[in-house]
């Protein structure tokens, strides 16, 4: 059992005063944040956490009873944890569409890759158009945009014209096009500081899938 | 309905050849990744996605039937989506302990903050020591380390000495200490490229909690 450290009363008082000031400043700042809006959210960069963070948000939506949907642009019939959990437990709140055919080096067929990306995007458009669906996760769609399998400008034009105002759309994958980053409301770049693949560790359940 | 674009046969063949080469190189590379290991995983940086990605991994563990646990070091009794979903649906597989008392500027009480951090860490140690638990998420623990409420070296010494070899421990929060980054197996820095708070948008359900 750790012993709680003794803190001198004057340190305690100084801390309380500093934090009271910080809270006041923060409260003033937060008072200006009153808007609600369906966000275009981008997770990009080479680091881990782009898809898992997207699925974390989908789980939060489910917890709040918000209908949501996932379209996977690369992963196909793979038995991933996210697929198993969403289809097995929450099919009533969250639609799950794995439209991918695998990585480009697996299919080795460019027209098949393009057809899969286009089919995924058609499905995505239907889901985004439905105002009852509050969040649509387009997992790995940035890969399809980067290879030019989908036209980035067409995707942005659609989002600008047809996304209902309160719907969140999350786009994940490396190499998000600059125009998408420009247009998005929330962009995080996952930077790889260290990755265990480099130490010979393979993809493991729970962590990567 | 999008029309599938025509691709010249020679382009198609070139693509197939290039991808076959890429696959061969990748297969050779992946053959060297055979290890399995319980990882120390760090999500840090100012960007969004540190906690949500941790919860995404917890969901993957649950999907694979792997017992897991969450200790929250800042969030207390807040009704977050993650708390609601995990305690409401998956209490049998995932323990959930919200040990926080709120942000430092909310408690305004340093000894109370330290006591909460220490209680969280005691709970974390019990969970990590149990080899049946396959992943332990220490949500926002980096904040407690950064303020010195927990001793980083003591945390690292414990992980080195007592973490079972196959247990994953995920530590999230800004400002992870350098020694933790050094010791970890997988480190991602979430960089903030753009955040909607700046545009006056408040924290929204599904996205932030």
Automatic annotation (TrEMBL), chains A, B:
It is found in: Cytoplasm. One of its GO terms (molecular function) is corrinoid adenosyltransferase activity. Residues 1-29 are annotated as: Disordered. Residues 15-25 have a biased composition (Basic residues). Pfam families: Co_AT_N, CobA_CobO_BtuR. Keywords: ATP-binding, Cobalamin biosynthesis, Cytoplasm, Nucleotide-binding, Porphyrin biosynthesis, Transferase. It comes from the Bacteria. It is an enzyme of class 2 (transferase). Pathway: Cofactor biosynthesis; adenosylcobalamin biosynthesis; adenosylcobalamin from cob(II)yrinate a,c-diamide: step 2/7. InterPro entries: CblAdoTrfase_CobA, Co_AT_N_dom. Residues 6-30 form the Cob(I)alamin adenosyltransferase N-terminal domain. It catalyses: 2 cob(II)alamin + reduced [electron-transfer flavoprotein] + 2 ATP = 2 adenosylcob(III)alamin + 2 triphosphate + oxidized [electron-transfer flavoprotein] + 3 H(+); 2 cob(II)yrinate a,c diamide + reduced [electron-transfer flavoprotein] + 2 ATP = 2 adenosylcob(III)yrinate a,c-diamide + 2 triphosphate + oxidized [electron-transfer flavoprotein] + 3 H(+). Its EC number is 2.5.1.17. The keyword Cytoplasm applies. Its main location: cytoplasm. Belongs to the Cob(I)alamin adenosyltransferase family. Required for both de novo synthesis of the corrin ring for the assimilation of exogenous corrinoids. Participates in the adenosylation of a variety of incomplete and complete corrinoids. PANTHER family: CORRINOID ADENOSYLTRANSFERASE (PTHR46638:SF1). This is Corrinoid adenosyltransferase.
């Amino acid at each position: 059992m750790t012993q709680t450290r003794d803190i001198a009363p004057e340190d305690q008082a100084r801390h309380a005063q500093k934090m009271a000031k910080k809270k006041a400043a923060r409260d003033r700042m937060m008072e200006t944040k009153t808007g609600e809006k369906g966000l275009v959210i981008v997770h990009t960069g080479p680091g881990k956490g782009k898809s898992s963070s997207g699925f974390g948000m989908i789980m939060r939506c489910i917890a709040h009873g918000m209908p949501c949907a996932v379209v996977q642009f690369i992963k196909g019939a793979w038995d991933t944890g996210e697929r198993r959990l969403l289809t097995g437990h929450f099919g009533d709140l969250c639609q799950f569409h794995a439209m991918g055919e695998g990585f480009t080096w697996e299919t080795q067929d460019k027209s098949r890759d393009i057809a899969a990306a286009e089919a995924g995007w058609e499905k995505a458009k239907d889901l985004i158009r439905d105002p009852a669906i509050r969040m649509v996760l387009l997992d790995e769609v940035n890969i399809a945009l980067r290879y030019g399998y989908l036209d980035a400008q067409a995707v942005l034009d659609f989002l600008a014209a047809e996304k209902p105002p309160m719907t969140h759309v999350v786009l994940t994958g490396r190499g998000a096009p600059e125009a998408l980053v420009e247009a998005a409301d929330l962009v995080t770049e996952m930077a790889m500081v260290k990755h265990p693949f480099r130490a010979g560790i393979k993809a493991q359940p729970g962590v990567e899938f």
